[in-house]
Structure to design on (651 residues):
């Protein structure tokens, strides 16, 4: 079957694709930003998938029970923070292997939400709806693509700059980066490395949880078991792709948001390739992007030098 | 008694208590629920057969994680390798005109090769470009699962399945023999035999030695002239083959056709199975049996109280976390 090019353009295919890329990219942006903060402090949290699904469930359940989706978003953040606290406890206090703990968080998050989520499948909660920004939303094309989203889309964008500022323009950010690059030196300069790592991991978990809640309350507008479908892992790749820079995460998140919606959109215009094959694309492209990122020089790309290594005072690795 | 041996026991008990609390929150009496789990697993020959049948894929995926882990590599892709193995076995079963006696061996070989091929991608990328194998193996799981869905919705969809996304049933020659009037199938023996072979290879051969050296001390391996790249690729291929065989055993021993959701997270469960056994192939059988029990018990809870099987994941995660926590407490005291 051939795609009718003219129909695709006139039906606003491109416009709606770009607009939905931004929406689909927003949960990825929240989670990627959160993991950037965590990894900058030297903690590798592989549990994003589990934290995101916990956020998605908590947000949905709270909104369903209270009718207030914003409360859902906030509590989802705290649920994410709680799981991140577990990771911090194992990684910082117990000096355990961070990969194992992170992987177990994935199982824990998927398990707990699958368990308690049973009764919420097929339910309808109160969702977060798009707003039309006055004046700007009536600009042709651009207005449709950029200015007709829900407030969280703009919050995520703002957050990218807030986190950039936090990391590179404040003393607190300096301490985070120092803890991730060279904890011994940071320690000798009076930085409480353990405290910084705890706080960064928990702040990261908070944002990842919100990203999950965005999925259930603003993007998909439903709850199903395992609905994150690997997005947490894609965000881990996006962190590498963005070179641990918050501002670069924006592009990556929207790009992968776009890949996410492309398969649905192509189906809708009668593109003759199976949905199941198109659904593979985001995962394959993530691996290819990751490959490009690692082929370029690692130093130039800015992985925190002590990422994933426990810090024990007086002991060198 | 040495605390080290006590940790797993305490961890399992603590996990039972934690999940018991979760059950109570859902309004289910945990004591009754655990009684159901036990009686349904050990109370009849069907229950015991199910224990073996659920343990079988876990032995193989546990080994699929354990072998690369010995070399310091995380194979989180056993789930996808299992799916690809099931796919390859199904193509042989459904499409290849072979003499009856050759069908099962060909399926076995095809599934091992396909699982290998699937694991070769992250193995190669890790060896050549140092691409994080945790992310790549995991992402390939989603690709494999979508591939099997594509197959059962498309090219391999059966003629007599109405609108279900199933392949046709395999012929008798393509299904593993069953025993005792239960689902206990020949695959159980295959998995146990493989575990012993893996044990032999890892402990008694040069290959096993080089794997252990690379895992323990990559720099020493370099001085000893052991190629780290080769060990990375070989252990991933080895693991992938075993996960692929698990896929063949699932379709030809249990499902008897290709369909979506052939595995309820067996590949992921391989991670705690391998960790609990500290990567020892003989102990993998024991820890696989424990998790097999959780699967059988979990589905008993599902049919009795309609508790989602996801509760099994909670058990898996908690047991491992408690063990890590316990071990690190012991280390600090010592």
């Amino acid at each position: 079957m051939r795609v009718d090019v003219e129909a695709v353009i006139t039906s606003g295919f491109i416009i709606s694709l770009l607009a939905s890329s931004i929406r689909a990219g927003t949960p990825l942006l929240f989670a990627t930003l959160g993991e950037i903060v965590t990894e900058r402090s030297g903690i590798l949290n592989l549990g994003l998938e589990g934290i995101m699904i916990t956020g998605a469930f908590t947000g949905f359940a709270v909104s369903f029970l209270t009718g207030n989706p914003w409360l859902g978003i906030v509590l989802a953040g705290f649920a994410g923070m709680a799981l991140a606290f577990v990771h911090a406890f194992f990684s910082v206090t117990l000096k355990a292997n961070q990969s194992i703990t992170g992987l177990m968080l994935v199982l824990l998050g998927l398990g707990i939400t699958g368990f308690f989520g049973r009764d919420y499948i097929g339910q309808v909660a109160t969702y977060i709806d798009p707003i039309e920004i006055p004046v700007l939303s009536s600009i042709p094309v651009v207005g449709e693509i950029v200015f007709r989203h829900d407030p969280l889309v703009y919050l995520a964008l703002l957050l990218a700059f807030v986190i950039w500022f936090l990391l590179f323009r404040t003393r607190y950010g300096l301490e985070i980066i120092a803890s991730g690059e060279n904890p011994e030196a940071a320690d000798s300069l009076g930085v409480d490395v353990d405290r910084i790592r705890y706080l960064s991991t928990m702040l990261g978990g908070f944002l990842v949880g919100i990203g999950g809640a965005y999925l259930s309350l603003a993007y998909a507008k439903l709850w199903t078991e395992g609905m994150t479908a690997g997005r947490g892992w894609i965000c881990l790749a996006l962190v590498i792709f963005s070179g641990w820079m918050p501002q670069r995460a924006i592009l990556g998140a929207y790009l992968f948001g776009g890949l996410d919606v492309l398969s649905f959109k192509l189906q809708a215009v009668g593109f003759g390739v199976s949905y199941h094959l198109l659904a593979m694309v985001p995962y394959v492209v993530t691996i290819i992007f990751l490959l490009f990122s690692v082929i370029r020089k690692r130093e130039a790309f800015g992985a925190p030098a002590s990422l994933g290594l426990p810090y024990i005072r007086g002991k060198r690795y | 008694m040495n605390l080290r041996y006590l940790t797993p026991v305490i961890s399992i008990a603590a996990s039972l208590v934690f999940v018991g609390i979760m059950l109570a929150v859902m309004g289910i009496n945990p004591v009754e629920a655990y009684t159901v789990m036990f009686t349904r697993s050990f109370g009849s020959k069907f229950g015991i057969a199910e224990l073996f049948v659920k343990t079988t894929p876990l032995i193989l995926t546990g080994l699929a994680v354990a072998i690369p882990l010995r070399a310091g590599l995380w194979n989180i892709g056993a789930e996808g390798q299992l799916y690809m193995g099931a796919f390859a076995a199904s193509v042989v079963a459904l499409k290849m005109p072979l003499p009856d006696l050759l069908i099962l061996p060909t399926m076995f070989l095809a599934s091992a090769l396909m699982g290998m091929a699937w694991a070769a991608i992250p193995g190669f990328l890790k060896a050549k470009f140092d691409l994080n194998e945790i992310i790549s193996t995991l992402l390939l799981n989603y690709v494999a699962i979508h591939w099997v869905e594509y197959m059962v919705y498309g090219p391999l969809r059966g003629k007599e399945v109405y609108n279900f996304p199933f392949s046709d049933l395999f012929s008798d020659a393509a299904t593993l023999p069953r025993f005792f009037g239960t689902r206990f199938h020949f695959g159980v023996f295959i998995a146990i035999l493989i575990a012993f072979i893996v044990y032999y290879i890892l402990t008694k051969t040069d290959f096993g030695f080089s794997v252990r050296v690379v895992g323990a001390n990559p720099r020493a391996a370099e001085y000893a002239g052991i190629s780290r790249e080769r060990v990375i690729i070989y252990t991933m291929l080895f693991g992938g083959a075993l996960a692929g065989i698990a896929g063949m055993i699932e379709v030809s021993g249990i499902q008897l056709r290709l369909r979506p959701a052939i595995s309820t997270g067996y590949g992921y469960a391989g991670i705690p199975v391998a960790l609990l056994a500290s990567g020892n192939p003989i102990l993998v059988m024991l820890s696989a049996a424990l998790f097999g029990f959780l699967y059988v018990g979990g589905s008993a809870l599902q049919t009795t109280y309609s508790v989602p099987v996801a509760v099994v994941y909670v058990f898996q995660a908690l047991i491992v976390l408690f063990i890590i926590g316990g071990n690190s407490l012991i280390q600090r005291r010592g």
